[in-house]
Here is the input.
Amino acid sequence: MTPKQIKKEILFLKSFSLLKSNPSKAGLMVLFDILFFAIIFYILPISNAYISHNFITPDKFASSSILIVFIVFSLIYYLAILFVYSFFKYCVLGFIRSLFDKTDFSFKRLGQFYSLNIIITGIFFAAMLLLSFILANAREIYRPFVFAVLAIPYMLFLYVMLNASHSSFYSGLSIKESVREGFKTTFTRVEVYKRIILIMILTALILLLLFLGSGYLIRLASKNYTLYLGIYTYFKQASIIIFDLAVYMFILINRVSFYSMSKDTK
Here is the structure.
C-alpha cells in the first residue's frame, strides 16, 4: 500500500484526531450548528408566520396579484434561509481551516460564498425537476423503487458536491473553479470519498441493528407488557437521540475530511 493510499485510509481518523486535539474549535463548530438550527426551525418560522398573518393577506392585495406576492415572498424567504445557511457554514469552514493553518478570519468572501450556494441550489433544483418528471411518468407500482433508485444517488451526489465545492472555495478557488471541482470530485474521484460514505452507511447499519437487537432483548426480559411499553417508549426516544448524534458527529468529522481533500487536490 502506497503512502497516498494509507493517507486516504486514515483520513477519517485523522480528521477525528484534529477535532479531538482542538476541543475549543470543535465546540465552536457545534455551537454554530446549534444556532443555525435554532434560527431555521424556530426564529425564521415564527417570523414567517407573523409576516404572513399581518402583511400577506387576501384583503390587502387584489386576487390577481396574491399569487405573485406569495411567490415573491416565498423566494425572499428561501433566499433568507440560504443566506443564514451560508453565513454559518462559512464560519464553520473558517474554524475548520484554522485546524490546518494559522489565518485571520474574514467575511470578505461571504457574498461570493452566498452566490456559490445559489448556483449549486439552482443546479440541483433543475436536477430535482428532471427526476420528478421521470418519477411522475413511471408506472405507479414501480414508483417506490424508482424513487429509491433516484433519490439515494441524488442525496449522496448533493452531499459530496456541496462539501467539495465549499471546501474548494474556502481553500481559495473562485466560484467557477469551486463548482467545477465539486463536479470533478463527485463524478470522477469516487475513490476519494467512497470510504467516507461507506463508513457512514456501515455505522448507520450497525446502530440500527444494535437498536433493534436491544429492543428485542427488552421485550424478552420484560414479562409485564405495560412495563415493556413504558421502557420501550424511553428506549425509542433515546435511540433516536443517539442515532441523530452519531449522524451529526460523522457529518462534523466529514467536513474536516472534505477540507483536507480539497487542500490535497489543489
Q: What stands out?
A: The chain is about 85% helix and 0% strand.
